[in-house]
Amino acid sequence: MAAPEHGRVAVVMGGAGAEREVSLDGGRDVLAALVAAGVDARGVDGIPALLEQIAAGSVDRVFNLLHGRMGEDGTLQGALECLGVPVTGSGVLGSAASLDKALSKRVWRDCGLPTADFRVLGPADDAASAAAALGFPLVVKPVSEGSSVGVTIVRAPEGFAAAVAAARSCEDRILVEAFVAGAEYTVGLLQGEPLPVIRIEPNRDFYDYAAKYESDGTAYHCPSGLTAADEERLQSLALDAFAALCCEGWGRVDFLGAGSDVRLLEINTTPGMTSHSLVPKAAGAAGIGFEALCLRILETSHREARV
């Protein structure tokens, strides 16, 4: 698709969420790539500034690089749909369903897709009963945060109360799930096709915020080391999980486990696009350079090119 066909593109980044700095880093790289490709693109920091530019008639479509709540949860997507402004990636339903980890897991479980056992706790629910049902080790996390914000692996009962408090400091609803031993894998999806599987090997207790964005010690293995059959199974599961939540365009599906015994972890409908980010790494392994990747993602704002 030729650059002029995209019209005036706003790359929305930053915002007020917990992942602001990650969003700004990726947004700046995406903006530079689009401009280099000849796209009439400009950066916009946050939703209020974006809506002002739309009201002024200076935006034809949006490349969304906002992460987490108010950017990846259907809120932005719904506003743009009402205004008739196309946006990259999933629509309202896919965005909202994916960011809510509890809803995602319920849908996958009902579809027969593998995910770890879990309990969802509201502010008044008894966390101790969830721990008793699942046993240790277990994982405690907010329902709707990304980048491992507020996530704790709890290996013994004495650390559980602090983990619950950390998750609830992010939001009232939290998820307590059974710990899954093994490696972390991720599958990027682009216009209906899976990218090569990446196996993530952090040099920390788990793939937390620091391991994702600050550490140079995290290893990313692509090829993943899986057999061809297990890699194809993971890619097929990623497509099924994406479709089950009505996601579109592009995204990333994360797994935990070993070999053919894996569990779905979560979907990111607006994955990171920094130098440490996984989708650009997988795309590069498939022979898709960063500029070409950004153009392919931008194409998903055109309805006919979403899948």
Instruction: Give the CA-CA distance, first to last residue.
Output: 15 Å
Determine Rg (CA atoms, Å). Answer: 19 Å
Tally the beta strands.
13
Average predicted confidence as pLDDT: 91
How would a crystallographer describe the biggest sheet?
6 strands, antiparallel
Number of helices: 11
Q: Residue ranges: pLDDT <50 for 5 or more in a row?
A: none
Into which percentage range does the β-strand content fall? Answer: 15-25%
Which sequence of SSEs, written as H and E, runs from N to C? EHEHEHHHEHEEHEEEEHEHEEHH
Shape descriptor reads globular
Structural class by SSE content: alpha+beta
- Helical percentage: 25-40%
Could you characterize the architecture of this molecule?
This protein is of the alpha+beta class and 307 residues long. It is 36% helix and 22% strand. The protein contains 11 helices and 13 strands. It has helices at residues 20-36, 47-55, 75-83, 92-99, 101-110, 127-134, 160-168, 209-213, 228-244, 278-285, 290-299, and strands at residues 8-13, 40-45, 61-64, 118-121, 138-142, 152-154, 174-178, 183-190, 193-194, 198-201, 219-221, 250-258, 261-268. The strands form 3 sheets. Strands 8, 9, 10, 11, 12 and 13 form a 6-stranded antiparallel sheet that branches. A hairpin with a 2-residue loop joins β12 (250-258) and β13 (261-268). The longest helix has 17 residues, at 20-36. It is globular and about 60 Å long. The two termini are 15 Å apart.
